[in-house]
Amino acid sequence: SVDCSFSRGVCDWKQDADDDFDWNPADRDRGDGYYMAVPAFVGHKNDMGRLNLLLTDLRPKSSYCLIFSYRLAGEKVGKLRVFLANKKTAPVWEENKGKDEKWRTGKIEIFQGAETSKSVTFESERGKGKTGEIGVDNVILISGPCPED
């Protein structure tokens, strides 16, 4: 497995230059490192912030599972979407409201093949809310299909 978490990960993360705002590091409650977050008050409604994970060393023709922690805290905080570079038109994963402030786990199967995905994009869309944040943490890539819960 490949650790792409932000504190000690080995992956290549890039802020998108053509979006409306950047994701920023935020300290974890337990004090062990940080996660990437977009506070609810950044930007205007429907503004987008994109964080790209560049997948340069993946072997083609095998499948991977992208596992990550995410949190949508606050009322009307916005949307979190995940896109694969070879499927830019529609998100492969989307969440638009948090039931509470808890961290949850997202899983996405990445099938490599003829059209190998060169990047994964985490996109935050600003909602109407003024409090809370959208956060992403503990991004891990494992080879093979996603494990069952």
TrEMBL record:
Top-rank taxon, per record: Eukaryota
InterPro entries: ConA-like_dom_sf, MAM_dom, MAM_domain-containing
Gene Ontology CC annotations of this record: membrane
Domain MAM span(s) in chain numbering: 2-148
Protein name from the UniProt record: EGFL6 protein
Species annotation: Agelaius phoeniceus (Red-winged blackbird)
Gene name tied to this protein: Egfl6_1
